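wait is this the right file?? whatever heres the structure
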């Protein structure tokens, strides 16, 4: 898993790489690999498809969702918009970031940080909302 994370980071922040996929007419992956302002990429391979789960970089009160991107070949990327939104996570009030995905027993779990504090008078406390959700 660690090697894939390094690969994804290199793909996002290095010069374009040559495409090694046979029969593909595109020869470069591009830099960055997909448009937008994203950070903290997490990468995983699921059923021979590459997935990247990044942080949507925006002012904290607008950074309230996560997008995902998938690719069969590390060249062509499909955006999966708003796979998670704070509207669905009642304890997350602002700024979700740094997603991480893990697989256990054929189930996938997405972890992330939320409720960033911007000053000493803020606690990041979600209040009386439950922190653990099931699904």
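ok assuming it is, sequence goes like this
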């Amino acid at each position: 898993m660690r090697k894939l994370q390094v690969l994804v980071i290199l793909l996002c922040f290095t010069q374009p790489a040559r495409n090694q996929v046979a029969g593909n007419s595109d020869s470069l992956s591009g830099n960055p690999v997909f448009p937008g302002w994203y950070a903290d990429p997490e990468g995983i391979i699921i059923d021979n498809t590459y997935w990247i789960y990044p942080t949507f970089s925006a002012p904290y009160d607008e950074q309230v969702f996560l997008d995902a991107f998938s690719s069969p070949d590390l060249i062509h990327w499909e955006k999966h918009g708003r796979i998670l939104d704070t509207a669905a996570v009642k304890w997350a009030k602002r700024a979700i970031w740094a997603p991480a995905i893990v697989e256990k027993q054929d189930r996938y779990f997405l972890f992330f940080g939320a409720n960033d504090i911007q000053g000493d008078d803020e606690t990041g406390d979600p209040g009386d909302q439950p922190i653990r959700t099931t699904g």
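The chain has a mean pLDDT of 78. so i think its the right one actually
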